[in-house]
Design goal:
With 110 residues, this protein is an alpha+beta fold. It has helices at residues 25-35, 55-63, 100-109; strands at residues 78-81, 87-91. The protein has a two-stranded antiparallel ribbon. The mean pLDDT is 88. Belongs to the glutathione peroxidase family. GO terms for molecular function: peroxidase activity. Keywords: Oxidoreductase, Peroxidase.
Length: 110
């Protein structure tokens, strides 16, 4: 769902973290819509780490590594990408509301 200000959330389920997404991509989508009331695109399951990582995640991680390296450490890691396609920042799984100020700033600059 693209919001009027151009902001969009995209979700990519992954089963690389203690097998927390063992079902099909469709089941992951249904779970996101039921549990989290997702009103945003939930894509096919992807790999985010290793040599078979999705190209998108290779790009995101290369452009915003952490002090511990580039690996995604756990589910619900978030990346904020500007309209220009550049990675603005990366957020751990527990970050929720604190990302809001960065989103607002990115929308103001766009």
């Amino acid at each position: 769902m693209l919001l009027p200000n151009g902001f969009e959330i995209l979700a990519f389920p992954c089963n690389q973290f203690l097998y927390q997404e063992p079902g099909t991509s469709q089941e992951a989508h249904e779970f996101a819509c039921t549990r989290f009331q997702a009103e945003y695109p939930v894509f096919q399951k992807v790999r985010v780490n290793g040599e078979n990582a999705a190209p998108l995640y290779k790009f995101l991680k290369a452009n915003k590594p952490t002090f511990l390296g580039s690996r995604v450490k756990w589910n619900f890691t978030k990346f904020l990408v500007g309209k220009d396609g550049l990675v603005i920042d990366r957020y751990g799984p527990m970050v929720t509301l604190s990302i809001e100020k960065d989103i607002k700033k990115a929308l103001e600059e766009a």
